[in-house]
TrEMBL record:
Organism taxonomic ancestry: Bacteria, Pseudomonadati, Pseudomonadota, Betaproteobacteria, Rhodocyclales
Catalytic site positions: 137
Residues reported to bind NADP(+): 11-17, 106-109, 141, 164-167, 180
Similarity annotation: Belongs to the NAD(P)-dependent epimerase/dehydratase family. Fucose synthase subfamily.
Pathway: Nucleotide-sugar biosynthesis; GDP-L-fucose biosynthesis via de novo pathway; GDP-L-fucose from GDP-alpha-D-mannose: step 2/2
Enzyme class: oxidoreductase
Reactions catalysed, as given in the entry: GDP-beta-L-fucose + NADP(+) = GDP-4-dehydro-alpha-D-rhamnose + NADPH + H(+)
The species this protein was found in: Thauera mechernichensis
Keyword Isomerase applies: yes
Protein's UniProt name: GDP-L-fucose synthase
NAD-dependent epimerase/dehydratase domain segment(s): 7-225
Free-text function comment from the UniProt entry: Catalyzes the two-step NADP-dependent conversion of GDP-4-dehydro-6-deoxy-D-mannose to GDP-fucose, involving an epimerase and a reductase reaction.
Record gene name: fcl
Xref: InterPro entries: Epimerase_deHydtase (IPR001509), GDP_fucose/colitose_synth (IPR028614), NAD(P)-bd_dom_sf (IPR036291)
PANTHER family registered for this protein in UniProt: GDP-L-FUCOSE SYNTHASE
């Protein structure tokens, strides 16, 4: 760790990027470089190259991305694949061009095949068909992994990739249609509490199992991965010095998640599971053995993390990304 390094955090206003900035600040890094959309269009190759030329950057955390839930992915597939491909290609190539040796690329667990063996190991990448609803986004994230691998192989760079499981926490997107499961359920149950609604209807049987990681845990994990030696990282990722799963290694049913949210929010109505609606993939759990061997494991329990997220949601209700 060199606390005087200039570190560019791309996507610093998003949930993941802002958590990485908080973590770096807590560790004492003094030169954290950021740029909002109004100052830098990451899909513009010329602008990104000029930005790297104007700053002496030592490390990059590539957390910028176009993200959304199933509805958004299914509705805007062209935007999801195009914007994500442009962002990662521009930043990774500019980092190489301007001799930035260390970069951390943030991906997603959706890179794995829809029917991957559970828990999903890193070796499952490209062994089967992807989930159709978010295939364009997943392909863009796979391309980001392969970009890092390729610059490592051809130019000897130290570009690493972290693939987080389902994330939640402060700064999440609480849009009623474009959000992920935790912020979507949190908002609906909160609104049902305010309206004294007798019930909240949830799609599916409640039996699918999902893994959830607090975003501050993710930030801690990726900064840890960025700072271990190249030799130690390579010991777990050779021959391609590829990606590492980041998760808790445990999962809960959607019913258990909803019941915990009811407790956290203080809703007194009942949950109704609409079994006429689809369940989706029965289980999505990450194998985090490599991460554990590299010296890190998650610390935030789901209930504690949900309490913190709900507190943030209440404090930022007017300005939350809704």
């Amino acid at each position: 760790m060199n606390l005087t390094d200039t570190i560019f955090v791309a996507g610093h206003r998003g949930m993941v990027g802002s958590a990485i900035v908080r973590r770096l600040q807590a560790l004492g890094y003094a030169n954290i470089l950021t740029a909002g959309r109004d100052a830098l269009d990451l899909t513009n190759q010329h602008a990104v190259n000029a930005f790297f030329a104007a700053h002496r950057i030592d490390q990059v955390y590539l957390a910028a991305a176009k993200v959304g839930g199933i509805h958004a992915n299914n509705t805007y597939p062209a935007e999801f694949i195009h914007q994500n491909l442009m962002i990662e290609a521009n930043i990774i190539h500019a980092a190489h061009t301007h001799d930035v040796h260390r970069l951390m690329f943030l991906g997603s667990s959706c890179i794995y095949p829809k029917l991957a063996q559970q828990p999903m190991k890193e070796e499952a990448l490209l062994t089967g068909l992807l989930e159709p609803t978010n295939e364009p986004y997943a392909i863009a994230k796979i391309a980001g992994i392969k970009l890092c691998e390729s610059y490592n192989r051809q130019y000897g760079r130290d570009y690493r990739s972290a693939m987080p499981t389902n994330l939640y926490g402060p700064g999440d997107n609480f849009h009623p249609e474009n959000s992920h499961v935790i912020p979507a359920l949190m908002r609906r149950i909160h609104e049902a509490k305010l309206a004294n609604a007798p019930e909240v209807v949830i799609w599916g049987s409640g039996t699918p199992m999902r893994e959830f990681l607090h975003v501050d845990d993710l930030a801690e994990a990726v900064v840890h991965l960025q700072n271990i030696s190249q030799e130690r990282y390579a010991s777990e990722t050779e021959p391609m010095r590829s990606h590492i799963n980041v998760g808790t290694g445990t999962d809960v049913t959607i019913r258990e998640l909803a019941e915990t949210l009811v407790e956290v929010i203080g809703y007194e109505g009942r949950l109704v599971f609409d079994t006429t609606k689809p369940d989706g993939t029965p289980r999505k759990l990450m194998d985090v053995g490599r991460l554990a061997r590299l010296g890190w494991q998650a610390r935030t329990s789901l209930k504690r993390g949900l309490n913190e997220t709900y507190t943030w949601f209440l404090a930022h209700l007017g300005a939350a990304r809704v």
